[in-house]
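Sample pair:
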Amino acid sequence: MNHDRYDDAYIRSVLSEVKTIAIVGASANAARPSYFVMKYLSERGYRVYPVNPGQAGKTVVGLTFVASLKDVPEAIDMVDVFRAPEHVPAVLDEVLALDPLPKVFWTQLGVRNDEAAARAEAAGLKVVMNRCPKIEYGRLSGEIGWTGVNSRTISARRPQRLGSGVQRLSIAPRGPKSI
């Protein structure tokens, strides 16, 4: 697969299929991007497990850190990697040791390792590199458009809301328009 560009349909299918996400390299520091990603994704209905051995047992924004992927108490659908590219092969080794295997191996913005991607795909995992699931979810749901950012998604339909309060939109497919 070409990892320079992803079709919106591919990203949407990945984000729609997964329910459980392990974030490797998550931080308890509210100023770090991984903190915002784990908080955002958990608020969108995903079960998020922050993975950081230095924070194991600590609870932040209602999420309890685990030391490693094998410590996640349920099957993982997607592993999101917040580690430098040179650490990605070791994270993938840990992913490939899981049973059952996750469906998706995702690396964050600025994180790309083509050899690891090829290994993950050979093992049957979908791969997304150098992208942020928070940004992609916000872009595809239309949330990011509310702040004046061009989401490259055009629709005449109203976005589906996830609840009341703060603007939270869903990437779930919208049914036929009712009159």
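The CA atoms of residues 49 and 128 lie 19 Å apart.
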